[in-house]
Amino acid sequence: MRRPRTRSLVVECRTDDDIALEADAGAAAGAGVAGLDITRTRLYTPDELYDAPRYADSLDARAYHWTLGTSGPAEALAEVLHDQAVDTALGEWVAGQGKVGLVGVMGGHAAGRGTVAYDDAAHLGALLGRAHVVATGGGPGAMEAANLGGRMAAAPPETLAEALRRLAAVPSFQPSVDDWVAAARDALSLVPDPSPSLGVPTWHYGHEPPNLFATAIAKYFRNALREAILLLVCDAGIVFLPGAGGTVQEIFQDACENYYADEDAVAPMVLVGRRYWTEELPAWPLLRALSRGRAMERHVHLVDSVEEAAGLFDPRT
Question: If 0-12 CB within 10 Å is exposed, 13-18 middle and 19+ buried, where does residue 111 land?
């Protein structure tokens, strides 16, 4: 590990100072965030992050407020130790899903409940979840909708329709996170035996609460690590719904991985919305040009509907 404020690299060696620093890190985390375990061995659940009647009192909110005041080496190490523990737990969770593969769904956090964009993302999640595990950035908007659909993939279509109807009553977590959470809990009651779904959010964007529809949540402090890990675990490919800066970054971060990958390691990339990705934010022409002549060329797709996107991941085709 790299010691704070030095240029020394210490490998497989723990001095008394290391032990003291780790103890300080544990104390910093434990004292600042009640219930935060920097050596945890499993992923978070929605009930664990939302462990209080009021969001302001929840573990998720307490952890976020703790990050706003972190500054010293002990606090920095606490974040690193926590994220390493989450990373290990995520690897074990993914391995436990067997050979079904994870399909990522990336898209705008601003898609409100009750909108066409939100409903489309939910239906996409449901279609993908029939044969794969749906993974998202774990936040609100299209991410929440895709996790909802993935969670309800094995339920009748009417169940998802009813969930969307109930959620539409509270379109956003603003102005009240508590109302937003209450509507989600109401929808959760419709499916007591959910299909697995993964969320990978970050406290870097702590002002945006994690959605409750992912059955497993790998929440990181360090956003750069979280972004890289999210793309990495989506071994079956990624669908990119209309979004803004974050979604565009994810497109080309994933494209870079595919550009240098061997043929058998390239994962499909599917952009949904021809006009959006060719006119509003013309990422498609550059992606297409980048892929030309590479192993990834036949794995990049531009479609107009979530049904077309899901069809590209159907194991029967």
Answer: buried
Q: Say if residues 255 and 288 touch (Cβ distance below 8 Å).
A: no
CATH number of 100-311: 3.40.50.450
Given a cut of 60, whether residue 8 has pLDDT beyond it is no
Q: Could you tell me the CA-to-CA distances from 265 to 126, 159, 247, 251, 284 in Å, in that order?
A: 26, 36, 22, 17, 21
How far is the C-alpha of 49 from the C-alpha of 58, rounded, in Å?
A: 6
Predicted TM-score (pTM) of the model is 0.90
Domain residue spans of the chain: 16-94, 100-311
Q: Confirm if 204 and 79 have CB atoms less than 8 A apart.
A: no
What pLDDT is recorded for position 75? 84
Any idea which residue has 């069809």 for tokens? Answer: 311
Q: Which amino acid is at 161?
A: A
Place of tokens 């993935």: 150
The whole-angstrom separation of Cα 181 and Cα 113 is: 12
Average pLDDT over residues 148-160: 98
pLDDT band at 20 (very low <50, low <70, confident <90, very high): low
- Residue 208, classed as helix, strand or coil, is coil
The Cα angle at residue 63 between residues 59 and 69, in degrees rounded to 5: 150
DSSP letter assigned to residue 266: -
Q: Are strands 216-217 and 300-303 parallel, antiparallel or unpaired?
A: unpaired
- For residue 111, what is the DSSP state? -
Name residue, tokens 């939100």.
118
Rounded to whole angstroms, the Cα distance separating 76 from 35 reads: 18
